[in-house]
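DM from R.C. (forwarded with permission)

"hey, sorry to bug you on a friday — could you get me a structure for this? deadline for the figure draft is monday and I only need the backbone to look sensible"
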Amino acid sequence: MIETRARSGQDIQGAGRRLASGNRAIDLAGAALIRARDAALARAFNTWAYGQTLRGPMPDHMVLYPPELRPGRASSADALFQGRWFLPGGQVRAPGGSSPFAADAPSETWAEELHGFSWLRHFTTAHEANNGDAARQYAQKLVADWIATEGNWHPVAWRPQVIGRRLTSWVANGALIIDGSELVYRSTLLRNMARQARHLARVAAIAPAGEPRITAAMGLAFSGLCLSEGHKRLAKGVKLLCRELDRQILADGGHVSRNPSAQLSILLDLLSLRDALTARHIEVPKPIRDAIDRMTPMLRFFRHGDGKLALFNGSTEGPEGAVDAALERDDTKGKPFGFAPHSGYQRLAAGPVSLIADTGTAPPGAYSHEAHAGCLSFEMSVGRNRMIVNCGATKVLGPDWEAASRATAAHSTLVLNDTSSARMLKGKISRTLLGPRVMEGPVEVESRRNENEAGVWLDTGHDGYAGLFGLIHRRRLFLSATGEDLRGEDMLETAQARRRPKPWNPLYWHKVPEDPDFAIRFHIHPDARVSLAHDRTNVLVLLPNGDGWQFRARSGGGECEIDIEESVYLGSGDTTRRAEQIVVAGRVFRGEARVNWAWRRLSTRNAGHPKREDAEVPELPELKLPSGE
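My reply, with the result:
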């Protein structure tokens, strides 16, 4: 038998250091100083005198076009060509061939995506598929428009992380935007790239913490590697990148933000940089090699049976084929491990079933802008079909949708009194200075995993409701060795030592309700069909492959009444899909509550007519520990 235990505290263990959670008054003071510094620098950068300091030798060619590992889509290029600029952060129409750079940005996120040019890969795909020059000509026109309008300065386009993404995209798609172009355009482009790179060399280190700073460092390294006069910038960019990888990549290979999408994005860039360094016969620094070696198994950990990412902490499924593109460069081709103690996740796999559970605390404050209140939530896929999911995340539909997707109710877990287990900053001044970071949430999250020939047990718990309600949420899971039987138990129990907020915290004056309501939610993927029995005691879920799964639940007083409610699925990140969720509701009684539930796979032949004996809710099997435990 294999047993592992973990307890996530207020800190996340990084590679050689501990990162504090933040969210203190000192963070506000520091953020105010940084904001004032950035405003002063922006005014200085937008002057003729500073522009003169960016002059220097002009590269005469690109030495190398590094591989673009993010898959492109010709259909997306066609939509952009028609003026439908639907990017993360909003939707803009620029009809009649008008420049998108002249449009009013619906959000800063959309503006960063536009000026980052990561969408350029779609035109490369369209050009390669159509064997024509229309995509190339339009892409070169957009690059020329940007240089003419924003090439000297723009408050968003010249942010370090935006420059980094733009330079990375331009060199990766260099064959599209340079080959076959006129001499004047090509000279202007290379001169402007060198100008951006010189500025980036000065400001990359002060990019926002987290993935943006890695993006800035990556762009600096790529500019030095691919432009003919950039060897000094290459050394500086690689040095900054190695420093940030040491800070942000955890010992188990996860990113400090706990966001699988950030994991994928950073790994794709690292793989491209590694291949480009190898092509130039330059030794790949050890910190980059080590980061790739740790991050690749962790990406495999987050992959569902459909080849896409799990939806936790701001993640989307990821671009079609992106996960496979990264894993194709993994020489080991190993199976995912089951436990990520530093990132705070568990993976249970048996037969056709893969289950991924969030068993960690929120990331440190500066890295939690996209974190969700989904502690102890889980997702489950059967073969290539997702069944139980979280709602996902979106940046296209506006701040209200983004806030709703971060709530506990948007995850497959227990929700107490319709309240999230973690709270995000809401104050106008605080949110302006610190961003939508997690303000407070679970301080201690426990997880204990046991494996033997019968299956896998997972015992977890978090104290996210201890401060508001004086209750601890515990969840137990058992997945049989065949993968056809998943049993669970959700419990609420009185906290031994309740954490009371400070008097200056509005929650201090919050009156704790006696016997609050709770709801256990299981969001179902929209491709599955959900049917509720007439007596409301069980649910049948039919997957696209014909498999049937039956759900039942029972509390201390007998079988629970089950409801089916509307839900929404945001897995793609840019569209919404109508979905349904299974809801088991109850009420705390004398400081405790317990609900047992079970999912059982039915044979395809009997999926539509389950027998009663197959529908009973089994107890979780007792775990027999070896002597001496």
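R.C.: lifesaver. Residues 10-23, 611-615, 625-629 have pLDDT under 50 and may be disordered.
me: no worries. The CA atoms of residues 232 and 629 lie 58 Å apart.
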